[in-house]
Amino acid sequence: MNVKIKPITDHESYEVNGHTIFKDTNGNWRCKNDLSHKELHAFDQYESIVIKNPRFKKHTKATYKG
After folding, report:
1. pLDDT digit string, tens, across residues 23-32
2. pLDDT above 90 for 58
3. Sheet containing 29-31, strands listed edge to edge, beginning at the edge strand earlier in sequence
4. How far is CA 29 from the centre of its chain?
5. Angle at 38 between CA 55 and CA 8, to 5 degrees
6. pTM for this structure?
């Protein structure tokens, strides 16, 4: 299963396989739907590689194969 991640608003919301993940007022990532283990793992990787990297000025789409 491939996991596709697309930025909606950098540092605030992202689409993961059609599900929206967003930051709540406490700074925690939330999703209204339950994500699979692979989707959560892919988003964790994306967060550490792209979102938390100050060198990325604009966040990019990503596909994780698994």
Report:
1. 999 999 999 9
2. no
3. 29-31, 19-23, 13-16, 3-9, 62-64
4. 9
5. 45
6. 0.88
